[in-house]
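Think of the structure tokens as a kind of shorthand, similar to the way a musician reads notation: each symbol stands for something richer, in this case the local conformation of the backbone. In the example below we present two proteins back to back. Begin with the first one, reading the sequence and then the tokens, and try to describe in your own words what changes along the chain.
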Amino acid sequence: MTLLTVLLQAASTAGLETMGPAIGAGLAAIGAGIGIGKIGGSAMDGIARQPESAPDIRMNMIISAALIEGVALFAVVVCGFIL
């Protein structure tokens, strides 16, 4: 037997097969948080530079944040189904 086969058998008997989807869900949530934070920071920079375009920047920020949250929620749901 190869080392990889032994490790895979040990992981499947130890209950470690549930760690993959859990790590995936965590990474999706962390990635969404980082993305929304970058969008918010960039929007504040843009509004500070051009206050007259604040409504347009705010609308685009909210749409982008909603799309990112939708993708993150989809990723967490898929990881939940895998569990």
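Once you have a description of the first chain, move to the second and do the same.
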Amino acid sequence: MNPLRFMLIAGEPSGDLLAAELAQALRDRLRSKGQPAPEFFGAGGPRMAESGVALELDLTRYAIIGFADVLRNLWRLRQILRDMIALARERRPDVIVCVDYGGFNRRFAAALRAHPLPGWNPRLVQYVSPQVWASRPSRARTLARDLDLLVSILPMERAWYAARYPNFNVQFVGHPIIDRHPGALERQPPATEPPPHLLLLPGSRPAEIARHWPVMVAAARLVQSAVPAHWTAVFVDEPLRQAALAADPGTDLPLETRVGGLSEALSRSTLAIASTGTVTLECALWQVPTLALYKASWSTYQIARRIIKVRHLALPNLLAAEPVMPEFLQDAAEPERIARAATRLLQDPQERARVRSRLRDLIQLLGSPGAAHRAADAILALTLPGHPTGPPPS
């Protein structure tokens, strides 16, 4: 019995983690069925390498954000795309899993489908839907045309696709952050809060640090003058932490900066100021009232404001269809505005309790623990006859 061979492609740190979790879940499921250990190769980052994926390229080094970054890296990305297509055609895996990184992976899947090889028909899977429901919904047509399976981690996506492409195989498996924060669902805020503890989460890319960190530290100084507090900033790696401290060390604040330890920091936070993105869901999971901000380059913002079809950027706000987390975007991301909102929340315990209750309700929509294993089940159902698709996520 030959082992199943998987090619994984992830181009950002968040996708790198998702792919590593998925690889382990696929191993677990195949071991439980008495199947040979699968083989993994592809492009990704350090988490995938640690999980046993043979990397041909550290694609996370080329994580980009915004139109300007795309233009600067266009030639390199085109070459990487050609290399990944050549690698797939040479190695001929049974399953190709494209993890997040929607722009690149959509083109990769389309190119493979447009030029098939005789005798090779891999299953093509996208793990995490591109946010075509937020902008450029016409791109969903190519996803439905090229993919055998779309694995969704947001609850509203399956119905969105079903209304437009009813024959498209879309499976909602729940959100992996539930498994990454095992103590969050039991968190109970203290009856009497100690001096407030505020958390700064500026983002996971250098461009986000450059644009968000100065705004956050300036807002923290204004809040500190009104409501003395403890401050913690969490970064995803040491280079980003050093870049932030070089821009503004915040030595006049009672500020701790750290790499990792997000769960522990959230568990004791009264309020967070965070970049929009997945981290806002982690704040919601820990029931931490959060102010969300985002600043992009001028060119990226001008393009985005013309194509984005949704009213909110923070994921909890999209789930709730209302601003549970106040958003400060582009020109509105000013230290004075953020500080005023933070101070009001810190001085209003009843409003913080109301927000925590709303966040607790929203998190129930993300499903129960086990998302990576449900994703593995959905993928294996394409390749192993009789393999169950797994239980529903909640």
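Compare your description with these statements about the second chain. The domain at 184-366 is CATH 3.40.50.2000 (Rossmann fold).
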